[in-house]
Amino acid sequence: MKTVARVAIAASVVGSVLVTLGVIYLWIAWGPGRAEPGDVVGTWSGPRGAQVTLRADGSATATKLPDDYSGYHPAHTFSGTGTWTLPEAPNSAAEQAIRVEIVTGPGTSATVELVIDGDGARDGIHVPVSVDSALGIDLGKTS
User: Fold this and answer.
1) Residues of the chain with pLDDT > 70: what percent?
2) Phi, psi of 127 (to 5 degrees)
3) Which residue in 130, 86, 123, 110 sits closest to 138, CA to CA?
4) Distance from C-alpha of 139 to C-alpha of 97, rounded to nearest angstrom
5) Average pLDDT score, the chain
6) d(Cα 22, Cα 118) in Å, to the nearest integer?
7) Helix-strand-coil percent breakdown of the chain, rounded to 5?
8) How buried is 18 (Cβ within 10 angstroms: 0-12 exposed, 13-18 middle, 19+ buried)?
């Protein structure tokens, strides 16, 4: 009987350690995206010709970039030039986002937040399709 109890205790300890390591792995692998400005400088491309170029000087160029929560319909895109910033995330559990402001015509502009996926944007960036969803229009770094 003592052997069974020892085995049960050992199995319980091993199981607890594995669960803890699994939670830590998931937090690191799928935790909130964070980046430094140098991580996001470059050209990012997505579906249907969507593209945004973020330069080190804070300037940006967008082509067919979907706006916030459009569900990605081609009529809901914008193109032009403007600026970008990388504000700090509001808290440790929140995703960090790049704020892009583009002049789309005389007296008109569009603003979009591009959410960072993974540490250093290793998994890309995306335009959220809904405030209630983690899904988005994915953009990958092309240069």
Assistant:
1) 74
2) -95, 120
3) 123
4) 13
5) 83
6) 17
7) 25, 40, 35
8) exposed
Look up residue 95 and give its DSSP letter.
P
SS3 per residue for 4-41: HHHHHHHHHHHHHHHHHHHHHHHHHHHCCCECCHHHHC
Contact 56, 68 (CB under 8 A): no
Give the mean model confidence (pLDDT) for residues 73-101.
89
**How far apart, in Å, do the first and last CA atoms of the chain sit?**
65
The model's pTM = 0.76
Mind listing the pLDDT tens digit for each residue in 11-66?
Answer: 676 767 666 655 555 445 556 889 999 999 999 999 889 999 999 999 999 999 98
Say which amino acid occupies 97: A
SS (H, E, C) 69-91: CCCCCCCCEEEEEEEEECCCCCC
**Within 10 Å of residue 141's Cβ, how many Cβ atoms?**
16
pLDDT of res. 27: 47
Separation CA 21–CA 59 (nearest Å): 42
Q: In the structure encoding, which two tokens stand for residue 17, read together?
A: 């350690």
Phi, psi torsion values for 73, nearest 5 degrees: -115, 135
**Tokens describing residue 127:** 């335009």
Both tokens of 5, joined, read: 């109890």
